[in-house]
Known about the structure:
CATH class: Alpha Beta
CATH topology: Rossmann fold
Strand order of the largest sheet: 3-2-1-4-5-12-8
Order of helices and strands: HHHEHEHEHEHEHEEHEEEEE
Strand content: 15-25%
Helix content: 25-40%
Distance between the termini: 33 Å
CATH superfamily: Vaccinia Virus protein VP39
Amino acid sequence: MTNxxxxxxxxxxxxxxxxxxSPLYDLEAFIAGENSLRPFEADDLGDVSGLDMVHLQxxxxxxxxxxxxxxxxxxxxDFSEKSLKVARNLASRLALDASFVTGDLYDASNILRGxxxxxxxxxxxxxTWLPDMSRWAEVVASLLKPGGRLYLVEFxxxxxIIKSDTVALDASWPYFHHDEGMAFTDAYDYSGSDQVPSxxxxxxWSHDLGSIFTAILKAxxxxxxxxxxxxxxxxxxxxxxxxxxxxxxRIPQGQPQIPLExxxxxxxx
Length: 269
């Protein structure tokens, strides 16, 4: 295990317990039937009943199990065993047919023993934890059946260069990719939990849209759809307004309007 993997896994191991009781994940509402996917996701993919799906970097599995509720045969994959313990407990409590496998992202093909899937899904907040988009896209392609689809839903890379307390540029995070990555040492957690995490160091990487698209194309996939959204899945800035009663927020009118999330579908030839 490399240094960045050890640092980041320790952070996510700690986050698993915090997020299991946080208002953002709201597991009691999820257990009661709430779907954790973004409003556009089910429409993007259409009917997933009976399709084999692997969810890379699935964390505590709420999105994974939301796809299972929609009929997909889902495998969640993550490097944090403590996160997957929460996910397995949820699946068991809800009697949902989903499996969870522990492993490093770049070793997924070996860990999953050559299995291939109709859909490779990767959700919000995953890519910045990976140093190499080309290797990531190659793993995605290796996991897809011929004609299978990658469905990528992510925070827009512009989001990272905006300060977390106000809509203003933050010089500590570059838009364009830097191989060396960025080290952050703090006690920040995005979930809104009352629990204060221990101060820990993590490593993250910026991936501009061009590098993501190019990696996907070089891996032999054909991009079929790309969309940008002016809403986000958590209250990143204090001034954001909630969209109705949903767990979605947007920048109020009169302030700079920037894309906050995006989705992409690419198909294996």
